[in-house]
Every structure is written in C-alpha cells, then in structure tokens.
Amino acid sequence: MSRTTNRDTPSRPHQETPATSSVPVPAVAQAGPVSHAIFRVARLHRMIAGQLLRPLGLHLGQELVMMHLWELGPQRQTDLVRLLDSDAATMTRSIKRLENAGFVRRRPSPDDKRATIIEPTAASQALRREVERIWAELEGASTDDLTPDQQAEALHTLQRIEDSLARAATRSPEAAPAPATDADATTD
C-alpha cells in the first residue's frame, strides 16, 4: 500500500487522503497481524518522537529519564535502570550524554559510596517545558483521528497487551516448548 496525498488527487486540493502503512505484511507475519501492527506503530512512533526530540539534542529515551528525575527528584542510577526497565550500559550512556548537555549532574551517594546519584540541573527546567510540548505533539499525532472514547479504548487495549507481554516475558525459558529443528523431523 502506498501513501497518497492531495498531490495525487487534484480534484481535492486541500484535503489529505488518510495515509496507510508503507510496510507490506509478509506472508509469514499473517499469523501475527496484531504483532505486525504493533511493530509498525512502534516504528512510526519512535521515528516521530526522534524527529521531535532531535532539535533539543535528546536521543530517544533520554526524555523519559528526565521525566522521572523531574517528578521524583535525585535518583540512584540503579533505580533509574529499574524504573525504565533499562540496562546499566544504556543508562550510563544516556546519563553521560545528559550530563555533557548540562541537564543532569552526577554525584556520589552519601549513603553508599558505590552508588551514583543523578539529579536534574536548573538548566533542565527549560527542557522540561519543551519535552512536555513535544509529548503533547506526539500524543496529537498518535490520537488526533480518534474520539475521546476511542482513545480510552485504545489505552485500555494497549494496557491489556502490555500486561500480556509482561507475563510472557516473566515466564521461564524452560516452560516454553523448544523450537522444532531439522533433527526433530523424521522420515520413514
């Protein structure tokens, strides 16, 4: 499917035809249409978020670090890893970039010399207003075509999908059936 715009339909010069996905659904993905839709939506959402954050000098995910710091105040780096379901290496890179940009400050924990406390700087407060504006713009891009009831329904459905995926992620690998291999196939 292709995206069509008013340039494709001269009889309606001021109206844009709704865009459709430009990612074809492979035959193999037909068994997982919801998963493929999630992939497509997440890809577009991340792309738009990245475009909106780039002028601020932020990489994807760094705005979430800042949101937690603004809301909760100074945090141990390990707590940020847990809050954002991240890994230590990714969080370290994000914090270093945010520190280099002047948005956070690192200091040793007074209670645990092994821990590092991350705190937002005064300079980050201007960034906060911009991040709030960007998230409102991203929300609009995501939901402007939905009624308030459809937005509530979408949020409820996404929460149920997230809950389902979280349960699947916590299942032990031993509980899942092993994938079939060529050795499993027998020929008589």
Brief summary of the model shown:
The protein is mainly alpha-helical. It has helices at residues 33-53, 62-72, 77-83, 88-100, 124-143, 148-170; strands at 75-76, 104-108, 116-120. A 3-stranded antiparallel β-sheet has the order 1-3-2.
The rough form would be described as globular
Any idea what the radius of gyration is? 22 Å
Structural class: mainly alpha
Q: Give the strand order of the largest sheet, numbering strands 1, 2, ... along the chain.
A: 1-3-2
Query: Strand count, sense and closure of the main sheet?
Result: 3 strands, antiparallel
Average pLDDT number: 84
Assess the beta-strand content as a share of residues: 5-15%
Secondary structure tally: strands? 3
| Count of separate DSSP helical elements | 6
The sequence of SSEs as H and E is HHEHHEEHH
> Terminal Cα separation, in Å?
45 Å
Low-pLDDT ranges: 1-18, 180-188
Helical proportion, percent range = 40-55%
Structural summary, described in words:
- This protein is mainly α and 188 residues long.
- The chain contains six helices and three strands; from the N terminus they run H-H-E-H-H-E-E-H-H.
- The chain has a three-stranded antiparallel β-sheet.
- A hairpin with a 7-residue loop joins strand 2 and strand 3.
- Helix 1 runs antiparallel to helix 5.
- The longest helix is centred in the last third of the chain and has 23 residues.
- The termini are far apart.
- The N terminus and C terminus are likely disordered.
